[in-house]
Design goal:
By secondary structure, the chain is α/β, with parallel strands linked by helices. The protein is 29% helix and 19% strand. The protein contains 21 helices and 27 strands. The strands form 6 sheets. Strands 21-22-23-24-27-26-25 form a 7-stranded mixed β-barrel. A 6-stranded mixed sheet has the order 7-6-3-4-5-20, with helices on one face. A 5-stranded parallel sheet has the order 17-16-15-18-19, with helices on one face. α6 packs parallel to α7 and α18 packs across α20. The longest helix is centred in the first third of the chain and has 17 residues.
């Protein structure tokens, strides 16, 4: 039996386990990346392991999230990360150099290599044939130290793309169609591989848009073949020697297969407040638009912004619309400046933002009250924009630009003939904003620079014999990491200060939650389906740990968050019978008798509702290795005990 692309990469990097769906496998990791919102914690964890030098082929620290500096906190964190990078063998991408996924695709990504990053959109690297996965900061720290990255062997899903896209329909519309088909939980436990004759018509930036938003499917990752299109991109980046051809075997077997006729697609949008709430632009109609934001790691490539510039050239943004554009990298920004496209954007009335994540994570440019904001981003969760009642629609750059001119949601197909935008034969290459680490022989003299905002990360002790605590919070389906631990300009600067961040935990759902936790001292969170979807931020596990959360009992988990809970030493449980969810009320007294023995011996997990006088069975969502981790009190304790 033949192998898929992902199976070939997994097979060549397999350290432990067998390639049987659902089994625990350990993978050798070639590359890692971090960004500054998650990186500080990841590097504190790396320091705690006592490894003097990273053992990966390439590790890169990017500054792209917390670039709004209204106090000393972000600047201190950046200085800390740069000093850590210099000392421990990590390349450092300075503020202004660009968004981690865009820059990594341009300058570091290599087909056939494994990559994990402390950002859920790391699968962007699948656009050039990498096995690229989002992970918690602790997992990234372990990989930097030379340890394997563990996942459950995923199912393989094939999506065949046929034909070519019509005029004004883009890669964003392809992934929106996939989200419409599969939903935000349709990719959980799966790797999405794209194939078919339509793949050859898509450039690497277009492929990267699709793999980037595969994170919104809940997929482990998404991947494209590495073909002549990939080679042309790498050669244009001056990295032709990094190219390797990768394709699936003709007799590869997939668990699921889908067919998409590219010619049948039309411009679409994800409506508030979920990336899978997809409708066509014509179905939604000409709603008034208040704001348009173009950029993010999804749609900020040279190709994307050249298309936007061609639409805006010689025109003026509608007076009722605020248009902001953020190039994805310094390379993109420079090339737009040199060829005159940047001047076209400015002349049209666009506000040019720095090369960073910016509005995508609520770092500025929040829309007006109940304002409608069209964004080329990847997530439109409620409140993520920074405006609690903001109405965010996810659209393509073409739809965004057309709508910015008209002031209403506009199908770009109404613009007439589409201008052809060719891929450059040579990109502008200037890596002067990427700082190499100090040579190993000089690393000992490098001082780590810490600011007062950097606090120790919380740790937990061994799993208790019995857990008795109240159902301190009950929430519904599709709770995101933005619900658990919000982002935004008011909170992100404190990513290295867990005590301060705890004041905002679950504030979107229940503002009284932090104080209730402090009053009770411990608790169990109860939730519905797809709990923890969204960002890889391990703060959504570390902050509840700090607040005394002992277990999270839900109908189902998103992959990364479930792993982060186990890493932190919080017990992830699912209802064996989902109907038992309805029988629990918030603040019911719950008890998990002999839970340590049940976890250690694969026994039944019994949940007693002391308040109601009932009991039911739950299941621990843990591999054997994760059981040992939770028993030890988390990954850090487990690593110390086993080294």
């Amino acid at each position: 039996m033949g192998l898929t692309i992902a199976q070939k990469i997994i097979q060549s990097h397999l350290v432990s386990g067998e390639m049987t769906v659902g089994s625990d496998i350990g993978l050798k990791i070639d590359q890692t990346l971090t960004q500054d919102a998650t990186g500080t914690m990841a590097y504190l964890e790396f320091e705690a392991m006592g490894v003097p030098r990273v053992k990966t082929e390439r590790s890169v620290a990017y500054i792209d999230h917390n670039t709004l500096q209204t106090g000393f906190e972000n600047a201190d964190d950046h200085r800390f990360i740069q000093s850590i990078a210099k000392k421990h063998g990590i390349w450092f991408s300075r503020p202004g150099n660009g968004i981690c996924h865009q820059v990594h695709l341009e300058r570091f990504g290599i087909p056939g290599k494994t990559l994990i990053g402390s950002d859920s959109h790391t699968p962007t690297g699948g656009g050039i044939g990498m096995l690229a996965m989002g992970a918690g900061g602790m997992d990234v720290a372990v990989a930097m130290g030379g340890g394997p990255y563990y996942i459950s062997m995923p199912k393989m899903v094939r999506i065949n793309l046929h034909g070519k896209l019509p005029a004004w329909v883009s890669a964003k519309d392809i992934i929106l169609e996939v989200l419409r088909l599969l939903s935000v939980k349709g990719g959980v436990g799966k790797i999405i591989e794209y194939g078919g004759d339509g793949v050859a018509s898509l450039t690497v930036p277009e492929r990267a848009t699709i793999t980037n938003m595969g994170a919104e499917l809940g997929a482990t990752t998404s991947i494209f073949p590495s073909d002549e299109v990939t080679r042309a991109f790498l050669e244009a980046q001056g990295r032709g020697s990094d190219w390797t051809e990768l394709s699936s075997d003709p007799d590869a077997v997939y668990d699921e297969t889908y067919e998409i006729d590219l010619a049948s697609l039309v411009p679409m949008a994800a409506c508030p407040h979920s990336p899978d709430n997809v409708k066509t632009i014509d179905e939604i109609g000409k709603i008034k638009v208040d704001q348009v934001c173009i950029g993010s790691c999804t749609n900020s490539s040279y190709l994307d912004l050249m298309r936007v510039a061609s639409i805006l050239k010689g025109k003026t943004v509608h007076p009722d619309v605020s248009l902001a554009i953020a190039p994805g990298s310094k390379q993109v920004y420079n090339m737009l400046a040199q060829n005159g496209a940047l001047a076209d954007l400015i002349a049209a009335g666009a506000r040019i933002l720095e090369c960073a994540c910016g509005p995508c994570i609520g770092m500025g440019l929040s829309p007006n009250s109940h304002g409608i904001s069209l964004r080329t981003f990847n997530r439109n969760f409620e409140g993520r924009s920074g405006t609690a009642d903001g109405q965010v629609y996810l659209v393509s750059p073409e739809t965004a630009a057309a709508s910015a001119l008209t002031g209403v949601l506009t199908n770009p197909q109404a613009l007439g003939e589409e201008s052809a935008i060719p891929m450059p034969e040579h990109f502008l290459i200037n890596d002067n904003m990427i700082v190499p680490p100090a040579p190993a022989e000089e690393a000992g003299s490098v001082e780590i620079l810490r600011g007062p905002n950097i606090k120790p990360f919380p740790t937990s002790g061994p799993l208790e014999e019995t857990i008795a605590a109240k159902a301190i919070l009950k929430v519904g389906d599709n709770i995101t990491t933005d619900h658990i631990m919000p982002a935004g300009s008011k909170i992100l600067p404190y990513r290295s200060n867990i005590p301060y961040m705890s004041n905002f935990c679950f504030a979107v759902c229940d503002k009284e939650f932090p104080e209730r936790c402090r009053r009770e001292g411990k608790g169990i969170v109860v939730g519905g389906e797809n709990y923890g979807q969204g960002s890889s931020r391990e703060h959504a596990a570390l902050v509840p740990l700090y607040l005394g959360i002992k277990a999270v009992l839900v109908k189902s988990f998103a992959r990364i968050h479930c792993a982060n809970l186990a890493n932190a030493g919080i017990l992830p449980l699912i209802f064996k019978d989902k109907a038992d969810y309805d029988a629990i009320d918030q603040m019911d007294e719950l008890e998990l008798p002999d839970i340590r023995g049940a976890i250690a011996n694969h026994g039944k997990v019994i949940v007693k509702n002391v308040t109601k006088g009932t009991e039911f069975e739950a299941e621990a969502v843990l591999t054997d290795r994760q059981r040992a981790m939770v028993l030890a009190g988390g990954l850090l304790n487990y690593t110390r005990e086993n080294n």
